């Protein structure tokens, strides 16, 4: 699941050295290659904060908070001082300031935002993490900074927001942007990018389920969506090379009060700063 930023119209590629290493492991044993794949899958890349995010980074109040459920700490960002709070959740290899453009517009409209660097992301410590740790962080942040009126999540952050709502996060509405959907599809796509046989995806799932004592499909976004009663806006780009459009459509189909907004040519990350996307988000938030 480790990713590098690229042109949004092209799909991410895993470095050749990792692909070669994976194939060597596969020649040795299925168990070894599953362990190798699991390590890569759970290791995000920490990118430097780009200049466009400096203002939010410098003006936000930052602190490190402890998440008892996972015995890890995360860095949080308080941006603005309104009592009308919105939670922002970044995606894989992202940062708490990645949704800065959305945060700035929210500030101008009378809201403040709380975001965070998930474990092993940004300024938070650690090397590896999984979605359940994103969810645990969200629920603890709600205890310490909430209540929140709205939750907005991008990519894995979108999946995490839906699962957190299913697990008790109290918000009036949610917005998910470029969210993944079925966990097995994500595992299979990752295995495909490693150049391995599809069956290794099942081995990877089994490894995670045994290690964390969970059913991976329980974290699929559509399953969470089936249990959510609040209005949710699903935003997805038709040309997203990382998360196929079918994911957003399927999530929307399983929501009781879902709205779907599709874009073209924005890919997976450029969509976060698009004027029309932000306008649609604000309109959705303000509708009573």
Automatic annotation (TrEMBL):
It holds the Pfam family Abhydrolase_1. Residues 86-179 form the AB hydrolase-1 domain. It comes from the Bacteria. Keywords: Hydrolase. GO terms for molecular function: hydrolase activity. The keyword Hydrolase applies. This is Alpha/beta hydrolase.
């Amino acid at each position: 699941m480790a990713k590098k930023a690229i042109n949004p119209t092209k799909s991410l590629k895993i470095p050749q050295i990792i692909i070669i290493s994976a194939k060597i492991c596969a020649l040795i044993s299925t168990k070894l290659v599953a362990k190798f794949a699991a390590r890569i899958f759970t290791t995000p890349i920490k990118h430097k904060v780009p200049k466009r995010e400096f203002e939010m980074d410098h003006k936000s109040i930052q602190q490190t908070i402890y998440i008892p459920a996972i015995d890890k700490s995360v860095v949080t960002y308080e941006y603005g001082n309104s009592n009308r709070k919105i939670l922002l959740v970044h995606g894989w290899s992202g940062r708490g300031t990645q949704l800065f453009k959305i945060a700035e517009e929210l500030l101008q409209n009378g809201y403040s935002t709380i975001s965070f660097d998930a474990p092993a992301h940004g300024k938070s410590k650690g090397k590896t993490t999984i979605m359940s740790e994103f969810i645990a962080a969200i629920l603890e942040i709600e205890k310490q900074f909430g209540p929140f009126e709205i939750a907005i999540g991008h990519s894995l952050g979108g999946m995490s927001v839906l699962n957190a709502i299913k697990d008790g996060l109290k918000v009036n509405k949610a917005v998910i942007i470029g969210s993944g959907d079925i966990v097995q599809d994500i595992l299979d796509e990752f295995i495909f990018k490693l150049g391995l046989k599809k069956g290794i995806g099942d081995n990877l799932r089994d490894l995670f389920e045994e290690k964390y004592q969970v059913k991976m499909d329980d974290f699929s976004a559509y399953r969470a969506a089936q249990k959510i009663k609040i209005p949710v806006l699903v935003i997805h780009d038709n040309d997203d090379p990382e998360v196929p459009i079918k994911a957003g459509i399927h999530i929307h189909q399983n929501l009781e009060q879902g709205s779907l907004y599709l874009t073209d040519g924005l890919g997976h990350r450029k969509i976060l700063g698009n004027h029309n996307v932000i306008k649609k988000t604000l309109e959705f938030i303000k509708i009573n």
